[in-house]
Design brief:
The complex is a heterodimer of chains A (243) and B (303). Chain A is an alpha/beta fold. Chain A has 2 domains: 2-89, Elongation Factor Tu (Ef-tu), domain 3; 102-203, Nucleotide-binding domain of ferredoxin-NADP reductase (FNR) module (Rossmann fold), CATH 3.40.50.80. Chain A has helices at residues 69-75, 113-123, 143-149, 168-172, 186-195, and strands at residues 2-15, 18-24, 36-39, 48-56, 59-65, 82-89, 102-107, 129-134, 152-157, 164-165, 179-183, 200-203, 219-222, 225-228, 235-237. In chain A, strands 10-9-8-7-11-12-15 form a 7-stranded mixed β-sheet. With 303 residues, chain B is an alpha/beta fold. Chain B has one domain: TIM Barrel (Alpha-Beta Barrel), CATH 3.20.20.70. Chain B contains 9 helices and 15 strands. In chain B, the strands form 4 sheets. Chain B has a 7-stranded parallel β-sheet, covered by helices on one side. In chain B, strands 4-5-13-10 form a 4-stranded antiparallel β-sheet, with no helix packed on it. In chain B, helix 4 links the parallel strand 7 (122-128) and strand 8 (163-166). In chain B, helix 6 (222-235) packs parallel to helix 7. Chain B is globular. The chains are: A alpha/beta (243), B alpha/beta (303).
Chain lengths: 243, 303
């Protein structure tokens, strides 16, 4: 983990209430897709943890949804604004899991951390399938970006206004995969857990105090003992999760 | 050159900055970020007789200039603290540490302190009597002078190390509790623990914390902490470790003027992992600004 001042390169609305922000600064602390950063917001006490969508040398991309005061203030940041950020938090996804045909399942604003993961798995030569779940057509983002990486992308909408009508599990039934990675809301996780018979990794969310393992605010019980979502997670193996 | 040294129950520490229990784990998480040997000491994660997961999540909520937590003393229990945590701590921290101990019955406190007493790295005990779940009626130990006295006596019996009793601010008169601890043989008192608070989510229309209520900390509580330290300083002769919203070197000086011999930093560590390092580095400059040569000279200076 490192702390630094990052400069906003861009901050644009890409779907209703969903923003993509690019930050310029040191990226050495980021070692795996699925890690997150913790942003100090002017006027608020606790930092805001946001998953990393993509990173390369000196550039971090995050995608976040405006859900409260903190993300609302963040959405008003302009180019060249400076933010105090803790970078390289959490364990991230394990891209070395034995798999030839990994499936990535994202629900809404849980989709962003799967982007960098998708890129890395494709670079390893794996046949990557992606299922992106939304409520309705107007909420869709990053379909084209995932397709541009070269993944086999399916979009589902609950109301059927675009792509496959139904939940991500509807599309999963028609997909061939030998491992899965997922990030999204917990009801989606429960549906996935009931639908899969292969191993996989889930990326969890919890209200955090520090984001780096000190306060024990975001602990959960696992089959292998207590874990901190911020430090030992947010990614947990399917085999260790107690539902 | 200014002098930042203070003496806490006969043990000299290089500066009065002490990361507060529950915000610094067993030190090694922070040792990855900076050399924690620059600290005076630190108070390790509240340890109980048995392992505890704590309360259900969510157990963190934000407030104006502060936060609520309802972690509920998650810790691996005293046996694993001794076998797993302290050896890891020893590798990165060469100074004496403050052992923060909690319990749910007088015997629990005595058991845990007895177990830890033989650990050489422990310089002081900090006994947290501010826990809301105890046997015998649900009253917090820290809210009854009688219980505070009983715990103090029981712990003093099992250790010869200095014992600080950590007091709850959620009482009518904190000086009575402090006096009871002093009379029972406490070497000092730590205050304040968190204030009991609540936040409600307007979307769900329910409390944000799964436990409904939680401990309120952060800069918002500093005036309450200063007031209580000031009052307790007038009431007892034993040293006070002051805490509550401390985030800057200026805050440290303010708390010492109120009557604290040493100062703990809690919530600030969670929003800025380098908070204690920054405070320690800033302290000489701020002392010079306010014409303070020796920090010990200002203890209780506001009285």
């Amino acid at each position: 983990m490192t702390q630094g001042i990052y400069k906003v390169k861009s901050n644009i609305c890409i779907a209703p209430n969903v923003f993509r922000m690019e930050l310029l600064g040191d990226t050495e602390a980021l070692t795996r897709p699925g890690q997150f950063i913790n942003i100090k917001i002017d006027g608020l006490y606790l930092r805001r943890p946001i998953s990393v969508c993509d990173y390369s040398d000196g550039l971090i991309t995050i995608i976040y949804k405006v859900v409260g005061e903190g993300t609302e203030i963040l959405s008003r940041c302009a180019e060249n604004d400076e933010l105090d950020v803790l970078v390289g938090l959490g364990n991230g996804f394990d891209t070395e899991k034995p798999s030839e045909k990994p499936l990535l399942v994202g629900g809404g604003v849980g989709i962003p951390p799967l982007y960098k993961l998708c890129r890395e798995l494709l670079e390893q030569g794996k046949a990557v399938s992606v299922i992106l779940g939304f409520n309705t057509k107007s909420e869709i983002f990053y379909e084209a970006e995932f397709k541009a990486l070269g993944a086999d992308v399916t979009v589902t909408t609950v109301d059927g206004s675009y792509g496959v009508k139904g939940f991500v599990t509807t599309a999963m039934a028609d997909t061939d995969y030998d491992f899965f990675y997922t990030c999204g809301p917990e009801p989606m996780f429960r549906a996935i857990e009931g639908a899969v018979d292969v191993s996989g990794q889930y990326s969890f969310e919890e209200r955090m105090g520090c984001g780096f393992g000190a306060c024990m605010g975001c602990s959960c019980k696992t089959k292998y003992g207590n874990k901190r979502i911020c430090k030992d997670g947010p990614v947990l193996d399917r085999e260790e999760i107690i539902w | 050159m200014v002098n930042t040294k203070v003496t806490l129950s006969g043990i000299e520490i290089s500066n009065p900055i002490i990361p507060a229990s529950g915000t610094f784990g067993f030190g090694y998480e922070f040792a990855e970020l900076y050399d924690i040997n620059l600290l005076g000491t630190f108070s390790f994660k509240g340890t109980t007789k048995d392992p505890r997961f704590g309360n259900p999540t969510p157990r963190i909520a934000e407030t104006a200039s502060g936060m609520l937590n309802s972690v509920g003393l998650q810790n691996p229990g005293v046996e694993r603290v001794i076998s797993e945590e302290l050896p890891k701590l020893k590798k990165c921290f060469k100074k004496l540490v403050m052992a923060n101990v909690s319990g749910f019955a007088v015997e629990d406190y005595a058991y845990t302190c007895r177990m830890l007493d033989s650990e050489e790295q422990i310089g002081w005990f900090e006994v947290n009597i501010s826990c809301p779940n105890v046997h015998g009626g649900g009253l917090a130990f820290g809210t009854s002078a009688k219980n505070a006295e009983a715990v103090t006596k029981a712990v003093k019996k099992v250790t010869s190390k200095p014992v600080f009793i950590k007091l709850s601010p959620n009482v009518t008169n904190i000086t009575e509790i402090a006096k009871a601890c002093e009379a029972a043989g406490a070497d000092g008192v730590s205050l304040i623990n968190t204030l009991l608070g609540m936040r409600i989510d307007l979307k769900t229309k329910k409390p944000i914390l799964a436990n409904k209520m939680g401990g309120f900390s952060g800069p918002a509580i500093k005036p309450v902490a200063l007031r209580m330290v000031y009052q307790v300083y007038d009431a007892v002769k034993i040293p006070i470790i002051g805490m509550g919203g401390i985030s800057t070197a200026e805050d440290v000086i303010e708390m010492m003027l109120a009557g604290a011999t040493a100062v703990q930093v809690g919530a600030a560590n969670l929003v800025d992992p380098f908070a204690c390092k920054t405070i320690i580095e800033d302290l000489p400059r701020v002392m010079e600004k306010y014409k303070i040569n020796n920090l010990t000279d200002i203890i209780g200076g506001a009285h």
